[in-house]
Amino acid sequence: MITDAEVLNYALTLEHLEVAFYTQGLANFSADAFAEAGFAAAVRANYDEILSHEETHITLLQSVLEGMGADVVQACTYDFGSVDVTSFIAMSAAFETVGASAYSGASKLLRHRSLLPAASSILSTEARQSTWIQSTVQHLNPWSGAFEVPLTPNQIFTIASNFIVECPSSNPPIAATHAFLPLSIPSTAAPGTSVQLSFDLTETSFSDLSELSVAFLTSNGTIFEQFSSPSSYNVTFPTQEEGLLGTVFVLVVNSTSEVTDATTIAGPTPLMFPFNATDQQLEALFPN
Question: pTM (2 decimals)?
Answer without folding.
Answer: 0.93
